[in-house]
Structures are given as structure tokens and as C-alpha cells.
Amino acid sequence: MSATNIVLLGAPGAGKGTQAARLMETLAIPHISTGDMLRAAVAAGTPVGLKAKAVMDAGQLVSDEIVIGIAGERLAESDAQKGFILDGFPRTLAQAKALNELLESMGSGLDCCLALTVDTEAVVERLLKRAEIEGRADDNEETIRERMRVYEAQTAPLLDYYGGQSLLREVSGMGGVDEVFKALLGTLESS
Ligand code: ADP
């Protein structure tokens, strides 16, 4: 399998985090989630966390400058040189372009953009269930709908962006966790 620099794309609640964790285990490459990194920054009360908290709680996007900074630092670490699964980054065209430039400057590039496709209403249901279990501050119905709107407006255009680079591989995220994982692995093997 050659495709190891991977971007995982999908609407909120599409199952990116769950699938990325499994891919990390199977492919032995780090799972890099900007959402997790931002939540850790909020919990630790760092300057980035202080800036990001209100924006995240409202379901909006943290500034490109901040996320490009944290993703860039993480991608420069040694464990990311053998490959990575990016989850939740890039989320805007500006972030996608910055990622391309960053990887190019490191003499590297993306191998594949795996996109999990889902039905919006079904994922709103999923997220509401997760809200009950995990109690995440941004998992209430109003914020979930705002995150969906933000995804459609800012992140969905990346499907065309990666499609245009022949890197896009779409996989249905509507099955069970095992089924979706198998489909993702199958797609990676054949790409
Ligand atoms: P989900 O996949 O459920 O939308 P994430 O954990 O990926 O959630 O992200 C949670 C929140 O963190 C986002 O709603 C956003 O406010 C912020 N965030 C994460 N990644 C980015 C990014 N690449 N650009 C801007 N904001 C981000």
C-alpha cells in the first residue's frame, strides 16, 4: 500500500474520528485531529485555546492562521514523516492550499483524500446521541446545524479541489463501523 499521506474528509458526525483511529492502528501512522488538538488547547488554557473556545462552542471555524499553525507544527514532527491521517484539517480552501505548500516544502505531498459521504439528517441524529454520551460543548442541536452549514459552505468545496487533483476517493459512511472501515481499507489498497 503506497497511499500513506491521507486527508480524511466528511461532514461533522460522518465518523472521521472513529475511522481515523482504526486506520492509525492498522497503518501504523499518526492520527492528526485539529479538533482534538484545539480541545486540548482549550482544556490547557493556552493562548490558542483561549482564542478558539468561543468560536468552537458556536460551531464556527477557528481562524485559518491558527489551525494552519498547529497542523503545520504537528506535521513537522518526526512520527509524521512516514505518513499521517489528517482528520478535520483542511476545512477551507485556504487551509488546503497551505497544506499543499507545506508538504511541497517538505519534499512530500498528499497521496489520497478519503471522503466519507453521509446523509445529513442521519448524522444530525448521530451527533445528538454523541452529545448525550460525551457531553461535548458543541454538540447541541443548534450548534450541530451550524456546523453542517459551515461544512457545506466552507469544506464541501474541497471535494472538487481534491477531485481536480485526482486524489479524491469517496466511501459511504452510512454503514456500521466495521463495514465502513473495510471499505476505506479497500479503497486505499486500490489507490
Ligand atoms: P466535527 O468533526 O464534529 O465537526 P472536530 O472535532 O473536527 O469536529 O472540530 C471541532 C471544532 O473545532 C470545529 O467545529 C471548529 O470550530 C474547530 N476546528 C477543528 N478543525 C478546524 C479547522 N481545520 N479549521 C477551523 N476550525 C477547526
Bound compounds: adenosine-5'-diphosphate
Mean pLDDT: 94
Uncertain spans, ≥5 residues at pLDDT below 50? Answer: none
* Domains (count): 1
The dominant shape is globular
CATH class: Alpha Beta
Q: What proportion of the residues is helical, as a percent range?
A: 55-70%
Work out the number of β strands.
5
From the structure above, extract its key features.
9 helices; single chain; binds adenosine-5'-diphosphate; 58% helix; Rossmann fold; five-stranded parallel sheet; alpha/beta; 191 residues
Describe the protein:
There is one protein chain. By secondary structure, the chain is α/β, with parallel strands linked by helices. The chain has one domain: 3-Layer(aba) Sandwich (Rossmann fold), CATH 3.40.50. It contains 9 helices and 5 strands. The protein has helices at residues 16-27, 34-44, 47-57, 64-75, 93-105, 120-134, 141-155, 157-164, 177-189; strands at 5-10, 31-33, 84-87, 112-117, 168-172. A 5-stranded parallel β-sheet has the order 2-3-1-4-5, with helices on both faces. The protein is globular, with a radius of gyration of 16 Å. Residues 12, 16, 34-35, 38, 55-56, 59-62, 67, 88-89, 91, 95, 138, 147 line the site of adenosine-5'-diphosphate (ADP).
Secondary structure elements and pairings:
Layout: E1 5-10, H1 16-27, E2 31-33, H2 34-44, H3 47-57, H4 64-75, E3 84-87, H5 93-105, E4 112-117, H6 120-134, H7 141-155, H8 157-164, E5 168-172, H9 177-189
Helix pairs in contact: 1-9, 2-3, 4-5, 6-7
Adenosine-5'-diphosphate is lined by residues 12, 16, 34-35, 38, 55-56, 59-62, 67, 88-89, 91, 95, 138, 147.
